[in-house]
């Protein structure tokens, strides 16, 4: 971390979403791929271990992970894949397993078992994949796989884009490719990220309106550099926003493919922050007093909903966050979890099925219940910068995407106080 008294430069870990996709793409590419600066966290380790279980050699050696792939799918004839809390692993790995020949069990933690899987289950079954689900659509799943012929398929990605990304990622491993009709969609930038990375690994994938067409032919192995995580970066940008100080995040610049960078480039300027996006970095400087951005539609970037909610108490008017209904079916019911967390700090909120409104106030110290949701802990840590005494019942839940978060956040504040 570089220093003067009111500016800090931070280097953050790799993107969870890019790491998960790179692991999948490398697994379905003949040859050996090298992933540079991947994220090492509970989610991505679960993903990598899932690949190993499916028969793909993965070597994790510090900042370089090596994956030896196979363009026709899993090499193991049987596997027990444990996805832990990771939505990416739980939604993407069944699609990879379906391409193999054998019996694969996909299971996960109680938290992940509680999250919906229905639209992916329907799409896989429509592609003649034999899947037995334990409880309606929920994990664990038992897949009796025998390859996938492919063809047309429809998917409703209105509660999670991960179902759609999973189908896209598997498509080059099918015999005839896929023509996917998208019925509804949230988190659109994540699907754009999926298609862009598929092309990086040699796939022929195109989109026209609600139709995505992907040719068969597998992927090509390559070296791939993982950019820093833009959702993680939102906490560091938000720290600048609430303190009037400056934070530069390295490695996230003009060419970033992560939609969550829009938290810095679109939302924070509307709150009075000065934001400069350069080729290889983004810098945010907070104002003397944060402005309310009014109503903010966060359908496409809902992982940063909690970051905005946590800084909203310091704004000069109410902040209404809308179109985030799918936040209720993530690691926790995030609309409710944030309302309760802010309420514990004395901040007034109101909520609806897909919205949250925060009334500005003077937060007080409190014990925050994280509900084992990393983003509740990380976002409320931002509120805690100006409200000493905010504590967590489960601070280690940050291990899902950033095990070193509390240390890095403390280092940031120490830099400012030096
Ligand atoms: O594809 C991905 O890597 C992700 C998609 C998003 O999920 P939804 O599409 O369920 O909103 C996001 O919240 C999640 O953290 C990562
Ligand atoms: C929703 C999230 O994760 P996932 O769906 O990948 O488990 C997240 O990281 O905020």
Observed structural traits:
418 residues; alpha/beta; UDP-n-acetylglucosamine1-carboxyvinyl-transferase, Chain; 2 domains; binds shikimate-3-phosphate; binds phosphoenolpyruvate; Enolpyruvate_Tfrase_sf; amino-acid biosynthesis; transferase; EC 2.5.1.19
How many distinct domains?
2
Shape: globular
The amount of helix comes to 25-40%
Bound molecules: shikimate-3-phosphate, phosphoenolpyruvate
The CATH topology of the largest domain comes to: UDP-n-acetylglucosamine1-carboxyvinyl-transferase, Chain
Number of strands: 24
Description of the structure:
The chain is 33% helix and 27% strand. Strand 12 and strand 13 (211-214) form a beta hairpin. 54% of the residues are buried. The longest helix is centred in the middle third of the chain and has 14 residues, at 230-243. The protein is of the alpha/beta class and 418 residues long. It folds into 2 domains: 16-213, Enolpyruvate transferase domain (UDP-n-acetylglucosamine1-carboxyvinyl-transferase, Chain, Alpha-beta prism); 227-417, UDP-n-acetylglucosamine1-carboxyvinyl-transferase, Chain, CATH 3.65.10. The chain has helices at 16-27, 42-53, 87-97, 110-113, 118-126, 162-170, 188-200, 230-243, 262-270, 305-311, 334-344, 374-386, 405-417; strands spanning 2-3, 7-10, 29-36, 58-61, 64-69, 78-82, 101-107, 130-135, 138-146, 151-157, 178-185, 205-208, 211-214, 219-220, 223-225, 246-250, 274-277, 281-285, 295-297, 319-322, 349-352, 355-358, 367-368, 391-392. A 5-stranded mixed beta sheet has the order 1-2-16-18-17, covered by helices on one side. The mean pLDDT is 97. The protein is globular. The chain has 13 helices and 24 strands. Phosphoenolpyruvate is lined by residues 86-88, 303, 330-331, 375, 401. Phosphoenolpyruvate (PEP) binds next to helix 3.
